[in-house]
Amino acid sequence: MAKGQPLDGVDTAALENAAEVALTAFCWWRSDIPQEVCEAYWRDVHGIMFARVPGLWQYRQLRLAANRPDLWPAVQGIAFDAPVAAQPQGMPHGLFLSEADLAAFGGNPVARETIPHDAHHFIGRIGAQLSSPGSGRTLVDRINDPAAQGTPPVPTFVLCFVPRARAASPEAFHRYLTEHIARPWSGRPGVMRLRVEPLPPYERSVMRSPGVAHRWPNDETYLGWIELAVRNEGVIGDLLAGAATGELVRQVRAVHTYPVREVYTIISAGRPTEVGLRGYPAVQTIIAAGADDQRGEAVLGILFGDAVRGLDRLRRST
Questions:
Q1: Which domain holds residue 103?
Q2: Alpha helix segments (H runs only) across 7-134
């Protein structure tokens, strides 16, 4: 497994919680291109563009498998199934330390022009949303790999929540999701990592990509999601044990559970990872060849210039 830049002694939860703003995008690949081509392009062509733009604190790509309703016990009033056409295949997740950093990223010509105009090469549909400042939190992370690459070490899922139409305001739903679902779950045995990300109601994608549809596939848009890593799949079914299911049914109409097949970290702690700089296949080849000098900052600095230093070092130099 190719790793990113070493970050010894870093607390991943604290690292992520330093960020104020989060960007989540749900992606559906083009149907006329093989999925493996779309995913390779996303990581090794499209993804490394992000590593050239100042402003991002963290940027990960999560490859999603089909929804798993079988992991949950039946709860009358809550649907765990999702139509196949509505299930996203990829989810990029970006963190920014501040709204000023988000503005700096968005104002860069690569982020403003090049990245949006590249998306149509592999994305058929996208829905991107910005969370309210300070709303997303990593409540626990016992895995503690801030530059994870490849298959997760334990079963990992993205749980997406569809609110009930008669539920309270989005803000009230967000409080319920964070305080009554995510926080209690984060303390349960067998939960290895949990991050909660409340989302605003979906109206239009905040990432406008020419040639890519921005309309959601159906009316089951998500008002929040939880990244959940567990010791084994059986932990998920136990999470509802002892829960106030009556209140859950009043708040939640559906829960969609997407396994994370692979995760690729392009930027961590404001610095591009090796995968972000070179692409995953090149890093795998360098490791297999034992070419350790190619992984050193001296060589990377010659090849990639200021991109190697990233946001944190650029700040200290100004």
A1: 12-316
A2: 12-17, 35-41, 47-50, 99-107, 109, 115-118
Q: Please tell me the distance from the alpha carbon of residue 208 to that of residue 117, in angstroms, as a whole number.
A: 9
CATH value at residue 92: 3.30.70.100
**Distance (Å, rounded) from C-alpha 130 to C-alpha 21?**
7
Residue 284: inside a domain, yes or no?
A: yes
**Side-chain-facing half-sphere of 316: CA atoms under 13 Å:** 5
pLDDT digits (tens, 9 = 90+) for 112-171: 999 999 999 999 999 999 999 999 999 999 999 999 999 999 999 999 999 997 666 999
Residues 248 and 176: beta-carbon distance below 8 Å: no
> How many folded domains does the chain comprise?
1
Q: Quick check: is 71 in a domain?
A: yes
Residues 299, 159: Cα–Cα separation, whole Å: 41
Q: What is this structure's pTM?
A: 0.92
Task: Tell how far CA 34 is from the center of its chain.
Answer: 22
- Among residues 261, 16, 3, 24, the alpha carbon closest in space to that of 156 is found at 261
